[in-house]
Amino acid sequence: MRLGLVIDLDVCVGCHACAIACKEWNASGTIGPLSDYEPYGAEPSGVWFNRIRHYEMDEYPNNKTINFPMSCMHCEDAACVSVCPTGASYKRPEDGIVLIDQDKCMGCNYCSWACPYGARELDRSSGTMKKCTLCVDRIYDQKLPIEERQPACVLSCPAHARMFGDFDDPDSAVSRTVRERDGYPLMPELNYQPTNQYLPPRQKPVIHVDAAPKGGLKESIKQFANRLVRR
Amino acid sequence: MHPALSVIFFTVASGAGFGLFSLLYIADVFSLGGGFNREQLIIGGLMAMALIVMGLLSSTLHLANPKNAWRAFNRFRTSWLSREGVFAVIFMPLALAYLLCIWFDAPAILRIGVGFIVAVLAWITVFSTGMIYACLKTIRQWHTPLVPANYLALGYASGSLLLLLGAVVAKLDTVPYLAMSALIVSVAAVLKAIYYFWIGSPSVTPTINTATGLTRAGVKILDTGHTHGTFLTQEFGFQLARKRAGILRLAVFVVGFGVPGLMLISIFRQPDALWAAAVALFAVMLGAAIERWLFFAEARHVVNLYHGAQRC
Q: ipTM of the predicted structure?
């Protein structure tokens, strides 16, 4: 199995609900807490596994705002795992999820240097590195109804811009969607083979903004009257 | 990249220590300038080991969870950080064995054999330190074979000037030590110049377009999505003004290589010039520290692309 996410950049509205749901679930999950520093102070900061950034593509009038959620890509060739000196970082052979053993991490930050996606963040309170677990403590939970055995971010997305599934299965929903919508990985030139895929924004018909005359008898009389009466 | 002072001190001190120990071995084998006596060799070796131990201890200061530092030897098979630790730890008892060979006047074959292994281990350890940085594909300024070359050259340059100071104190013939220092310092200067030339011209690198996959038009950041700084901005957001970087690069060459070069000439003319040897050593260490700080400050991690940088 190769579990991962598909994120639809055409649909994401940038509401940050996935990031909030992630924080809510994982703060009390196996890797929690996700510490906040000065949450009500002048400079609030803290640990997040999922961050949403906002970009603009192209120039007006062809510009488009793209909301861009990012979390761990659970790379096939995960450099964060191979550079880890302690063996705290590991990739599960059975489902490809990259995890950090909190009991082994010495907080050297080296794995975060190796990650191009900014997926790993040091928690100052525990002194250990933390990252997205793909909600490993949810997706296998037999006590949850089967439709809820998905990462918190996927369940919470109001726009259905996120999908979760097995990329090794060519007929899974994620594999099919990536095939049909030309899904792509981020920064493929670094060759980490990220599992998560992004669906590009669709090409939309250009809406003309210049007013076109409506035509018709009523409109011509109106325009004639407008020319006569100076307001 | 954020320049952590503990890591700068560690790499400068342990580089000088490993450099001193392996050059001390060469001085011993060839009896350079008449050769150090037994006590002098032991003192030199212990000084080198002290520098290395101080460096290693300082390197644990940047750990957020140092109680797990002992686990760092686990991933020898894949991690250069782990390899560096393992090599440094193997170095210690062997270096001690070499010093014991000197103290107890062991047969020459044993003394030379053990010393050779120790010198090679010192070389491998400093190489591993450089590879910690050079193996990262995420930082263009580090992902080059020039990085371990620079680490080795600067470590051995510092070590050679330490050894020169020792030769002046021991009143040996300084000419072979001067020649050795002059050669290593100039090689270090040339390698550093090539490095600065190399990182100045970005070749094929990730851009904000490949980072987001939005390649059909220009992309710019509208909002980074966080209120204040994050771990990512603290660790990777460090930015150095180009003008300041230029001044510091000049300082590396003037202080780190120029001043020691002038001092070498002074010692050549007046072989008992202890002050000149001391100034040369101080200058090369200061230059190495500035170089190491710049090495971090000038490195741009690709995660900055997601925070709006067009290329790294």
A: 0.91
